């Protein structure tokens, strides 16, 4: 009888411990992908963008403090907000009026639409909107407070050459904790096009990111080929904006670009030294 009681006690203690560990862990990335706040249109792009694999590669957990740089309309915010809602923290560093490369109307419209999204569902109540402009001294989050800075599908860092990317990297470095991760997903310029006039196409040389990130103090940790698209020749009339989902161009061009799929992307992980 005593053995049975002891056995039951151990079972209950283990069960409670397991439950506590599960509760403390928060929801998984796969569960966040299925959250009701995500739009059906955005879910259609999961196969091409591989958000679960991407966030796992960058070591995002439900307990992470994350800055999403230029979240745009909130494609990744729809995933990050539910993932981080209970145990983590999300800063959305949106367009700043100090970024003069884009029109004021475009930026204001983008921020307004993003804030309307945040107001549309309670899952976004803990998202903090901050500002980001590559050449402005604006804190995207409190210094040294962030586990991850995610720059996903941003192509405007080089609007005035390397200077803006250098300033952006310094800003990211400042926000990160020692040991924090900078995760970059960006259109990759093919090596055979390095001598072309690529700065207006949206494609960026991988080596430029590697070189400038090292100069900023980051260590390069790993790359991943999961978002490479060999069909993307990077020579489209409207650059990356020719391809889905933007699809700039004539109807004939759109049909051709739809067959190519989404842009060829590099996935790079950097770390701020401890």
TrEMBL record:
<dbReference type="GO" id="GO:0008168">
    <property type="term" value="F:methyltransferase activity"/>
</dbReference>
<protein>
    <submittedName>
        <fullName>Class I SAM-dependent methyltransferase</fullName>
    </submittedName>
</protein>
<dbReference type="GO" id="GO:0032259">
    <property type="term" value="P:methylation"/>
</dbReference>
<feature type="signal peptide">
    <location>
        <begin position="1"/>
        <end position="20"/>
    </location>
</feature>
<keyword id="KW-0808">Transferase</keyword>
<keyword id="KW-0732">Signal</keyword>
<dbReference type="InterPro" id="IPR016980">
    <property type="entry name" value="S-AdoMet-dep_MeTrfase_Alr7345"/>
</dbReference>
<keyword id="KW-0489">Methyltransferase</keyword>
<dbReference type="InterPro" id="IPR029063">
    <property type="entry name" value="SAM-dependent_MTases_sf"/>
</dbReference>
């Amino acid at each position: 009888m005593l053995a049975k009681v002891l056995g039951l006690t151990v079972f209950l203690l283990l069960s409670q411990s397991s439950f506590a560990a599960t509760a403390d862990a928060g929801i998984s990335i796969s569960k966040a992908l299925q959250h009701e706040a995500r739009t059906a249109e955005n879910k259609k792009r999961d196969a091409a963008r591989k958000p679960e694999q991407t966030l796992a590669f960058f070591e995002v957990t439900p307990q992470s403090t994350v800055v999403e740089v230029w979240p745009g309309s909130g494609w990744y915010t729809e995933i990050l907000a539910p993932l981080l809602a209970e145990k983590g923290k999300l800063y959305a560093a949106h367009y700043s009026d100090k970024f003069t490369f884009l029109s004021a109307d475009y930026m204001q419209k983008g921020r307004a639409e993003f804030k309307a999204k945040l107001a549309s569902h309670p899952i976004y109540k803990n998202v903090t909107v901050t500002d980001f402009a590559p050449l402005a001294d604006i804190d995207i989050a409190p210094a040294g407070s962030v586990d991850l800075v995610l720059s996903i599908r941003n192509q405007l860092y080089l609007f005035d050459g390397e200077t803006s990317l250098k300033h952006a990297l310094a800003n990211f470095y400042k926000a990160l904790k020692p040991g924090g991760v900078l995760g970059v997903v960006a259109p990759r310029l093919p090596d055979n096009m390095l001598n072309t006039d690529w700065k207006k196409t949206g494609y960026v040389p991988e080596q430029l990111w590697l070189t400038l990130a090292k100069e900023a103090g980051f260590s390069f940790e790993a790359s991943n080929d999961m978002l490479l698209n060999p069909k993307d020749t990077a020579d489209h009339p409207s650059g990356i904006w020719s391809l889905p989902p933007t699809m700039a161009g004539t109807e004939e061009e759109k049909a051709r670009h739809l067959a190519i799929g989404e842009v060829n992307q590099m996935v790079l992980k950097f770390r701020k030294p401890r």
